[in-house]
Every structure is written in C-alpha cells, then in structure tokens.
C-alpha cells in the first residue's frame, strides 16, 4: 500500500499522506478486549517517515466519527478537507457508519469528484496473507524471525524512560522503565533484548514485559529493561528495545528475594544466548 502511495505521489508531484484513527476503533468500543497494539502512534509515525511518507493525518475516533456516513467522510475529508487526487486503499478497507464504504464506493465517488482511487492487492509472505493478527500470533509464539519477515524489520518497542518504583535498583538490578502508551502489549514474559538510544548502540539486556504480578496489581502492561554490564542515565530519554529471544513467561513470586534470584538466572540465560548467537 505504501509503495503504491509513494509511486502515485511522485507521479502527481504531490505530498503523500496517510490517514490514521486514534484511538483505534476497537479500542474505542472495547478497550479491555481490543487486540494488543503492535505499534504505538509515535512508533507508527516514525516508521512511516522512514519509509518516505510526507504527512500523517490523525483523526480522533469518537461518537461523531462513528456516526459519520461514508458519503460524508468522502465529501468532508477527502474532497473538501484534503483535495485528494489519488486514494490508495487496502483491498479489504471499509469505512463510514456501519462500514458502508468500500473500494468500489470510493472509486464511484472519485468519478464524481475528479480523483482516482485504486486498491492494492493483498501482500503475502510464505503463501499467506500478511495481517496484524498474523503478526500478533508470531509475537505471542516469540517467533521473532517470522515477525521480522512480516514486518520487514526486527520487532521493537520504543518509549520514553520514566521513573518507576526503584525496586530494581534496590535489589541490585537497575531497570529502565518505558512508558508504553498502550493498555496491552503483544508480548508478555522475559526476553533477551538489544537496546538503542542515547549512549547505546545495540547494548544487550534483559527485558520484562507484563503487569509485574509480584510487586503490582496493575492491569496495564509495563516494559522494564536491565542492561548487562553497564549503567547509563536514561531518565527522560527515548530508547528502542529490540526483542531477540524469549527466556520465560512472566510469573508471580512469593517474595522479592525469590524474584531477585530468578532475575539473576534470567541474566545468566541472556548472556548464554547472546554468546551462542555471536
């Protein structure tokens, strides 16, 4: 879809633009049941910029947008708002109240308003359709090779390092706590990771993604990273954590002492894996 969009933008000598909805519709309707986000909004914008997209239009999904007809969406946003010359769509795209609008409708309206529209064929990898569901399933299995093939890059999570409860530092295992900007994560467990950020270039570490059941009762996912053999002041900085290997599931321990002992074993397991991967 993006390659098609960029080709058409060059053909028309116009900026490329992608429309995204925030929150995602399923998050709006059922935030606790909605599928885990693969990328935050900031990660999505950064990834699109790397691919060469010029602009991103974020439209807030709310009751007004929910009730907007496909006709009104085309008239108000595509035509009056953006003055589109060409619209690129996934072949399964639906929009408008009750999902009234589809590719055929947009093409029909294009003939009336003077723009063109074209669907992009389904992208397949290994003979199967690439979809967010398939990516999430690969991440749940910790199959990072398949996730990379589907995404076109290694799977990572980025975020700003915030102040946590300082528990890790108090037990001799300081961690960087990331603000995930999402309720749920597609990953859960303990992982061997690489970290990129200020003063870091592929620094190896151990990350926990989950709700920290030993020390917290939160339902919101957290990401904590411990760097191996180094300490870097990261508070307030933006870092990227790339997941390489799952070490174990997240679990609840009877005491902080048991947790500390398990973290020590996790660190040893991560060292062994990185040594074998070199």
Task: Give a short synopsis of this structure.
This protein has 278 residues and is an alpha+beta fold. It contains ten helices and twelve strands. It has helices at 2-12, 25-29, 41-51, 63-66, 70-82, 103-113, 132-140, 144-151, 167-170, 256-277; strands at 17-22, 55-60, 86-90, 116-120, 124-125, 128-129, 156-162, 176-178, 189-197, 200-210, 222-227, 238-248.
CATH architecture of the largest domain: Beta Barrel
Report mean pLDDT, rounded to a whole number: 91
The helix content, as a percent range, equals 25-40%
Can you tell me the number of structural domains? 2
Strand content: 25-35%
Instruction: Give the termini separation.
Output: 36 Å
The CATH class label of the largest domain is Mainly Beta
List unreliable stretches of 5+ residues: none
Within CATH, the superfamily of the largest domain carries the name Riboflavin kinase-like
Strand order of the largest sheet: 7-8-11-10-9-12
The CATH topology of the largest domain is given as Elongation Factor Tu (Ef-tu), domain 3
Structural class: alpha+beta
Radius of gyration: 22 Å
Shape: elongated
- Report the major sheet: 6 strands, antiparallel, barrel
Kindly state the number of beta strands. 12
């Amino acid at each position: 879809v993006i390659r098609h969009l960029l080709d058409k933008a060059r053909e028309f000598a116009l900026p490329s633009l992608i429309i995204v909805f925030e929150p995602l519709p399923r998050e709006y309707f059922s935030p606790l049941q909605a599928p885990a986000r693969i990328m935050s909004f900031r990660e999505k914008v950064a990834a699109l910029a790397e691919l060469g997209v010029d602009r991103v239009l974020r439209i807030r999904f709310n009751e007004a947008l929910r009730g907007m007809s496909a006709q009104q969406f085309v008239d108000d946003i595509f035509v009056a708002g953006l003055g589109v010359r060409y619209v690129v769509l996934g072949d399964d795209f639906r929009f408008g109240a009750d999902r009234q609008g589809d590719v055929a409708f947009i093409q029909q309206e294009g003939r009336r308003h003077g723009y063109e529209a074209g669907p992009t064929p389904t992208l397949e990898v290994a003979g199967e359709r690439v979809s967010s569901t398939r990516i999430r399933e690969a991440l749940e299995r910790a199959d990072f090779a398949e996730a990379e093939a589907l995404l076109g890059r290694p799977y990572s999570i980025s975020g700003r390092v915030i102040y946590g409860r300082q528990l890790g530092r108090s037990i001799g295992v300081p961690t960087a706590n990331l603000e995930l900007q999402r309720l749920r994560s597609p990953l859960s467990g303990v992982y061997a990771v690489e970290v990129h950020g200020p003063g870091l270039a592929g620094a190896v570490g151990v990350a926990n993604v989950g709700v920290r059941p030993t020390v917290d009762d939160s339902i919101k996912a957290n990401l904590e990273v411990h760097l191996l053999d180094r300490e870097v002041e990261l508070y307030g900085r933006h870092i990227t954590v790339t997941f390489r290997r799952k070490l174990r599931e997240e679990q609840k321990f009877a005491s902080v002492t048991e947790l500390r002992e398990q973290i020590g074993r996790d660190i040893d397991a991560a060292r062994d894996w990185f040594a074998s991967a070199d």
